[in-house]
Amino acid sequence: MQSWTRKLRMGMVGGGQGAFIGAVHRIAATLDQQVELVAGCFSRDPDNTRITGAQLYLDPARCYATYETMAAAEARLPEDRRIDFVTIVTPNVSHFSIAKTFLEAGFHVVCDKPMTYSLDEAERLMGLVEKTGRVFALTHNYTGHPLIRHARHLFRSGEMGVVRKVLVEYVQDFLMVPHEKLGQKQAAWRVDPAQSGIGGTLGDVGTHCVNLLEYVTGDPITALCADKSTFLPDRTLDEDVNALLRFKGGGKGVLSISQVATGEENGLTLRVYADKGAIKWAQENPNYLELYRYGEPRRVLTRAQGYLSQPAAAATRIPPGHPEGYLEAFATIYVGVIEAIRRSLDGHPMRPEDYEFPTVYDGLRGMQFISKAVESCHQASTWVAMPS
C-alpha cells in the first residue's frame, strides 16, 4: 500500500505522565491528520507507560517496558502494522542510544533538541543517519513559523544584503527557583550534568538561538567568545550566558540567554541588521515581522497575507487575524517530516538538503556550539573557532 493512501504510524519514547514536551509532539504530529500514534515506551517506569498508553487509548500490547523491546517488536510486525517512525522526547543523555536502536532497526527518527548528550555522540549519529539513509529530524520548532520562513526568504534571496549585526536573545525565569528540589521533572534533569551534558541553558535555549539565526541569515558562525554564570547554589551547569559572535560574511553578533531572568516567560527575539534592511521577530508575538529600510517608515508584516513569500504561505493554515503560534509552528516541522518519510517509503527519497525541517547536521551544529561555548568559558572567555 502506498504511504500516501494512509496515515503514518508513529511511536514515541518518553513523554509519559509528568512530562511536558511529549504532549506537544503528539499534538503537533497529529494536527494535520497525517499521523496516528500507535505505540510507545513512555517512561522507564512500566506503570507510567501503561497509564499513559491507556489515557491515549493505545493497544496495551504495543506499550513497551523498554525502548529496545519496542524497536525489536515493532520491526517484527508486518509492514502494514509496524510504526513508520519514532519520536524521541527523553532527557539528552538517552537520545543517542534510542536513535541508534531505531535507526538500526530500520525506522525513521524525530528527536527533540539538543540532539545528543555529547559532541562525540552527535558525530557518531550523523554517520549512522548517513549509513542507514533513514529520515532524521530535529525539532527546532521555531523555524516552522510562517514569518520566520519569510525572513529566511528575504535574506536568502538577497533582498536584505550582507549581514552586519545580529542580536539574538532567549530569556526565561524558568530556573529562578530550585524547582529540581521541589519535584519538577523538567527542571531536575535539565540542571543535572549527568542527564543534560556540559551545557545547561546553552543546550536548552542556546541551541535554538544558533539554529534560528543561521536558518534565517544563511550566514554561519565562525568564532565565538562566551561567558557563563551560575547563580543558584548547588547547581553546576550554566544558567545565564552571553557571547560575542563572528560570521562568515564578516558580520558580528551578540547572543544573550538566561533562565534566571526575573519576570521573563519565553523571550526569544531575533534582530538582524544588513546593508539593505533589517528585521525583528519575537516568539511571544510571532504573527508579526518588523521590516526596516533606511530612510523609510518601519513596516509590520503579518502572517497569511498575499504579499508574503511562498515558503510563508506554505506554513500558514488559517486566514489573517486568526493567530497561529507555537503548536502550529511545531506541526509545520512535522509536515516536512511526513513528506520526507512518505517519499522514502514509496522508494523516492528526498535529498537531505531539500528537507523542510532541521536535520542531523543542524543537531551536530548545536552540539558544536555548546562545546565551543564551554571551551571559551573555560579559557577565560577567549575567542574560539566554530567548525565550518
State the helical fraction: 25-40%
Strand element count: 14
Range of strand content: 15-25%
Find the CATH topology of the largest domain. Dihydrodipicolinate Reductase, domain 2
Question: Which shape, going by the Cα principal axes?
Answer: globular
Number of helices: 12
Unreliable spans are none
Name the CATH architecture of the largest domain. Answer: 2-Layer Sandwich
Tally of individual domains: 2
The major β-sheet equals: 9 strands, mixed
**Radius of gyration, whole Å:** 21 Å
Backbone structural class: alpha/beta
Element-by-element helix/strand order? EHEHHEHEHEHEHHHEEEEEEEHHHE
CATH top level assignment of the largest domain: Alpha Beta
Per CATH, the superfamily of the largest domain is: Dihydrodipicolinate Reductase, domain 2
Overall pLDDT confidence: 97
What kind of oligomer do you see? single chain
The first-to-last residue Cα distance is: 43 Å
The main sheet orders its strands as 13-12-11-10-6-9-8-7-14
Verbal overview:
There is one protein chain. By secondary structure, the chain is of the alpha/beta class. The protein is 35% helix and 22% strand. The protein has helices spanning 21-30, 46-55, 67-76, 95-104, 119-132, 146-156, 185-190, 193-196, 201-217, 310-314, 326-345, 360-378, and strands spanning 8-14, 35-41, 85-89, 108-111, 136-138, 163-171, 221-229, 240-247, 252-258, 267-274, 277-282, 288-292, 299-302, 384-385. It has a nine-stranded mixed β-sheet with strand order 13-12-11-10-6-9-8-7-14. Helix 1 crosses helix 11 (326-345), helix 5 (119-132) runs antiparallel to helix 12 and helix 9 (201-217) packs across helix 12 (360-378). The longest helix is centred in the last third of the chain and has 20 residues, at 326-345. It starts with 7 loop residues before the first strand and ends with a strand. The model has no long low-confidence stretch (mean pLDDT 97).
